[in-house]
What we know:
Elements: H1 16-30, H2 37-53, H3 55-62, H4 68-85, H5 89-98, H6 101-113, H7 120-133, H8 140-147, H9 149-159, H10 164-177, H11 181-189, H12 192-199, H13 208-221, H14 225-231, H15 235-248, H16 255-268, H17 272-280, H18 283-294, H19 301-314, H20 341-346, H21 404-407, H22 511-519, H23 532-536, H24 554-567, E1 575-579, E2 595-597, E3 607-612, E4 615-619, E5 634-638, E6 645-653, E7 666-670, H25 671-675, E8 681-684, E9 686-696, E10 709-718, E11 725-729, H26 736-749, E12 754-763, E13 769-777, H27 784-791, E14 795-800, H28 807-820, H29 825-833, E15 835-839, H30 844-848, H31 874-888, E16 895-902, E17 908-911, H32 915-920, H33 939-947, H34 968-976, E18 980-987, H35 1003-1023, H36 1033-1036, H37 1038-1047, E19 1065-1067, E20 1074-1076, H38 1092-1096
Parallel strand pairs: 4-6, 14-15, 14-16, 16-18
Antiparallel strand pairs: 1-3, 2-5, 3-4, 5-11, 6-10, 7-8, 7-11, 9-10, 12-13, 13-15, 17-18, 19-20
Helix pairs in contact: 1-2, 1-4, 2-3, 4-5, 4-7, 6-7, 6-8, 7-10, 9-10, 10-13, 12-13, 13-16, 15-16, 15-18, 16-19, 18-19, 19-24, 22-26, 28-35, 29-35, 33-35
Organism: Oncorhynchus mykiss (Rainbow trout)
GO molecular function: metallocarboxypeptidase activity; zinc ion binding
Amino acid sequence: MNKHKxxxxxGVPSNSRVLMLFGxxxxxxxxxxxxxxxxxxxxxxxxxxxxxxxxxxxxxxxxKGSSGMEVILATLEVFVCVSLSVPGxxxxxxxxxxxxxxxxxxxxxxxASKESPPSEEVMLQLHSVLAKVGQKDRKFGVKARLNGAxxxxxxxxxxxLQNYKLLLPxxxxxxxxxxxxxxxxxLGKNGVVELMFKIIGPYSKKNTSLLKVSLDTLxxxxxxxxxxxxxxxxxxxxxxxxxDWHRNDTRHRHILIRKGILSCLKNITNIKLGRKxxxxxxxxxxxxxxxxxxxSVRTLDPLINTSSLIMRKCFPKNRLxxxxxxxxxxxxxxxxxxxxxxxxxxxxxxxxxxVVDESDNNEEAEAENDMENEVEEKDHHAGNDDIETDxxxxxxxxxxxxxxxxxxxxxxxxxxxxxxxxxxxYTFKGVTATPAAPKSHRPIIVPTAQALPPKTPTAAPxxxxxxxxGAGQPPILAGGVAARLGGEGEEMxxxxxxxxxxxxxxxxxxxxxxxxxxxxxxxxPQFSEVAYPDYFGHVxxxxxxxxxxxxxxxxxxxxxxxxxxxxxxxxxxxxxxxDLDIQSCPVVDGGESLKFNSQFESGNLxxxxxxxKFEYDLVLNSDINSNHYHQWFYFEVSGMRVGAPYxxxxxxxxKSNSQFNYGMQVLMYSVQEAISGRPRWVRTGTxxxxxxxxxxRSSIAAGGQKxxxxxxxxxxxxxxxxxxxxxxAYHYPYTYSTLKMHLQKLEALRTPQTYLREDVLCExxxxxxxPLLTITAMPESTSNDQICQFRNRPLVFLSSRVHPGETNAxxxxxxxxxxxxxxxxxxxxxxxAYIFKIVPMLNPDGVVNGNHRCSLSGEDLNxxxxxxxxxxxxxxxxxxxxxxxxxxxxxxxxxxxxYHGHSRKKNVFMYGCSLKxxxxxxxxxxxxxxxxxxxxxxxxxxxxxxxxxxxxxASCSFVVERSKEATARVVxxxxxxxxxxxxxxxxxxxxxQGKYKGLQIGTRELEEMGAQFCVALLxxxxxxxxxxxxxxxxxxxxxxxxTETRCKGSSTYLLEDEEASFMEEVDYSxxxxxxxxxxxxxxxxxxxxxxxxxxxxxxDSLT
Length: 1103
């Protein structure tokens, strides 16, 4: 084998041994792919030894003109490249950095710069190594600035603009420098931004690698708003360059260069001046046209997505087309706390509550002070900042906050604890905590057919149909849509509405009884109409409704259609077709526009604007006495054309993400379908997506945050029936009048063996009653033993619907109530095991008036449990008082559960409270005695996970957060001392695990969940009985489950927005990056329908 020969030259060490070692290093460098790190280490160790022991050798290596340093640097570069290319090699670079390697390299840069002229080869190799190693050193930018290497690189760059060989590594190092904010500002002051524009240019086949690196470096510099301001004048240049590359790169070989140009534009348009310059340079039209031409090529999606983001960001901000963002309805409070949200809302000058704010957050120039912690790693618990860290707040209170004498008035709500049942013919009379307000006797417009000219002398209902004649007056159709209800090919008979007979399918629904309930319901707008779905009722469909598979590119198509409004303004109709702010809503003639209505119980739609022939912008109403909380919608549509592709855009949503991006569909109810015997809500809509729009959200409504925008939820719809009346809703509606109707029907189902009492807990601010139910089993006899057993049954306290928009909570509660009142052996055993105290609707006023989250006080009632006001939050005040009374008499509930709905997660799951699990999620230290805790709080969720197909134990969390300290779950746990205190969250979308994986949730599954909760309580009773513990140890071994979970490192702490990603890159907002989604529909395609037995014997199957 021929040995490598190194010819001695001037400047090369003359020592023969050193000469040989450098020759070996050079050979290793040439064979970089086969280099053995151990051999290189041995050679460099020998060279180091010679340098340390021989002064002459050291001086020769570092002397001017010596190639020894170049060989060593070349070897280091090879080592770095090889290390980064092999698995685990990054650790070697980390060791190099930890030993001060980057500091030595930067010092070498300073030393080499002092030579006159500096060695080009040494500078080339130094910067090549720094470009790779610097990315692994978090303090690299600070080190370079402090020792002066930053200026050396800048000067080297300025002096070698035509030396492409040296220019490339210098730009790469500048890119790493720029990741530090202070460095980026300093580089901008030194003219580096203007320097970059001398390097980049129009389309060229030469030096494309250099151009790509230049654009990446410029993009990094422009992340600084100060540098972005310097580059504003270059926006037309960047647009011209982008157009040139778009026209000439016909084979799409330089996508990265084109994206680099767009990245620079994206960073410049982060500031207001940049957005203005972009608009002035006709950037919207340029990017719209270039993006449209790219749509057919899938590989150009990164360009389209970035262009879309820029255009949306630069779209001129508008305020909502409303006179005020406050609710169109107003309820005068008798007591308005000074400084509270309602006082602040109504002290705001008229017209000042919705000001367009286009300012940039923190637009002022960045501080140039060298902060020591600017490069420190962010605390890895940053995402858990909301977790409570005060152990004192995580312990139950030992003293009661209210004297017993004050609580004694609530004894009347617990008659079952003192009743002797000497007279078994028990009469159940309700009691009330506050006097009832008088009900208004306003006329109610029920869904009947308006009188039309009869074609026969008399009108008679069709056989098998029900009729509702209309309370002794000419029947009037809700919403004035009588003429539309003839049906296809059918004649409307005078005064007759063909209502499907659903008595067998819906034993708890009665249209006539529902109307009677509506008459006693008070609403702020004084609703006088009844919506068809609430009147007809809802029968759950027998077919499975799969989670919608997202169509690739649907979001950008919708966004481009929005951008066309700015580019082609003459195509926009902008015609208001419905407006609650106007006393008489516009009446549109000619049949060219849809007709809308939301003036019925729980309805919410404030305004409808026809944008194009088949496209409508919809604006939701704020919660009463509030200026935000836009999510719940429920409205009527009529006057549609069959087969036309309608698009609906709800333009004032507030949450940053939604399950509409993950397969959830809206709910639609067709009156024509109902008349045909299919009265049901069905999931519908295509091309559904949710994204940030150009409507500015006032900082007043955004908690003082500036620069916020609303979000659009958009869906497309094709109607199947002529002259139909359709209703759309966020989720399955469940009105307050429906609850009252169901409670009356449940009372009729009561058997002599069932103890059922309905009390009026209190009256709400709006004058509606808040019902309180007591359900248990009657004692078998009046013997002392039976009465004692009856009185000593443990209590279970349930509540629901504190948030009006979470209608699924009411459907779960309906399933619970029906099971409890059922005749099955399990239901009887459950009643014998517990006394149930149930508040089925904590916020009747919010439900009635179409609110999403608040009561008439304009506040979230589930944040008032710590200190509720009897005047402003009566339902919470009295419900908490009931629990305080139970705690005072040593009868605190065994289980407390508040039913809720979750808008951004799938499945059904629970939030509980645990001292130990909360501490585990934080950095606080605590002794083992402080963390002593009974793990029984995990038993009920584990039981549910084993028997309820929609329930997910993996989604449960038992961490206590600061922001939830005033919620029912946490207050009942801490103040009442209920260990098993839960919030049970039901998805609004569907499930991604278990039997219902890939399916959207429906009322059938929600009611089933309510029933399964009851069965789980019965199993909890049996399992916690001492005689049963041995046989069911596997169900109660929660300690090992908890330990195993922690050992695996999987936290029970769940972020608010946890969701799988899409295959398509989804751009949720103009500020965020792209987020993919991958939510496949994996349900069995053959499992498309429920069997007849499953449909008819659903509740029996629970036994």
